[in-house]
Design goal:
The chain has 184 residues and is α/β, with parallel strands linked by helices. The chain has five helices and seven strands; from the N terminus they run αββαββββααβα. The chain is 36% helix and 20% strand.
């Protein structure tokens, strides 16, 4: 009886270690903002859409990222008309494409000059589900921070296979990724 109990406990402990997702699952795009140590880097962003439904998704995603880490802060406002950083929509008839983010580096460097992030309104899930919109907006802003898709199964907004209706805010792995990318 004692051997059976010990075997059961040992098996459970091993399974816990084997099936626990990696704490270092985050991945990087290779581009970063020109942040100086000890300072928060502020990124002014403008809307490239007038549709309030899609603006609200990016408003929530900006708030989610800004409240989860202190390294890079997005300042999304209609008043930022001169900013090259913009969020909006694209209409691509591809139900597997939820959004897209393109970062444009400063010539000859890996430092981000500006970015564009769009939700795909050609995807019915983006059109019909508010949490999917928020999750997608947060995912695309993660790319704007310098995070890439994770390559392992982990609960993260940067996981392309996540359930967008339940994972719609930055998760521990996403935040760890930002902190690793911008350590000070």
């Amino acid at each position: 009886m004692r051997k059976k109990s010990l075997l059961t406990v040992t098996t459970l402990i091993l399974m816990t270690f084997i099936f626990t997702s990696s704490a270092l699952a985050y991945s990087f795009t290779g581009h970063t903002w020109s942040k100086t140590n000890g300072n928060t880097y502020n990124v002014s962003v403008k809307y490239a859409t007038t549709n309030t439904t899609y603006r609200a998704a990016f408003d929530s995603a900006v708030s989610d990222w800004n409240s989860s880490q202190s390294k890079i802060k997005f300042n999304l406002s209609a008043l930022n008309v001169s900013s090259l950083n913009k969020v909006g929509t694209q209409d691509v008839d591809n139900p597997s494409l939820y959004g897209v983010c393109i970062t444009y580096p400063i010539s000859g460097t890996a430092k981000i000059s500006y970015f564009t992030a769009d939700l795909n309104i050609g995807n019915p899930n983006v059109v019909n589900y508010s949490k999917t919109r928020r999750s997608t907006a947060g995912h695309e802003l993660g790319h704007a921070l310098g995070l890439d898709h994770v390559s392992v199964l982990v609960t993260a907004i940067m996981n392309s296979s996540r359930d967008r209706e339940t994972v719609y805010t930055p998760q521990t792995d996403d935040i760890n990724g930002v902190n690793a990318l911008y350590p000070l």
